[in-house]
Amino acid sequence: xxxxxxxxxxxxxxxxxxxxxxxxxxxxxxxxxxxxxxxxxxxxxxxxxxxxxxxxxxxxxxxxxxxxxxxxxxxxxxxxxxxxxxxxxxxxxxxxxxxxxxxxxxxxxxxxxxxxxxxxxxxxxxxxxxxxxxxxxxxxxxxxxx
Length: 146
Prior knowledge:
Layout: H1 2-23, H2 27-32, E1 34-41, E2 47-49, H3 51-62, E3 68-79, E4 84-95, E5 98-111, E6 114-122, H4 132-138
Parallel strand pairs: 1-6
Antiparallel strand pairs: 1-2, 3-4, 4-5, 5-6
C-alpha cells in the first residue's frame, strides 16, 4: 500500500513539475521531460514526433507569440499502473492590450521519468473535423486497422 501511494505521488509530481516548467517559460526544462521518440499531438491536429520537432512546435509559445501564458490546473486523473495522467487546465494568455483564457486538457503517457506522448485538447467553438478519406489513408479512421 505504501508503494502504491509513493508511485502515485511520484507520478503526480512529474505531471505538476512538467506543467510548472511551462509556467516558468523554460523550454529547455520542458524538453528535458520528453523521451527522444516522444509524440506531441496539438489541439489543432498537428503531430510532432521526436525532440527537434516537438521543440519547434513549442518555440512560438516560448518566444512570447501569444503573450504571457500560464496553465492553471483544475483537475487531474492518474492511472499509476499505466503511467498515464489527464490534467485539465485553464490557460490564460496576457498581452499588453488584451487578455483571455481557454480551457483544455492534456493526456500524458510516461515511460519511467520520460514523457512519451502528450495529447492536447481544448474547448473550441468549431471542432476540428478531418476528412474520412485522409484518415483512412493514414490508417487513423476508427476500425481501419481491423
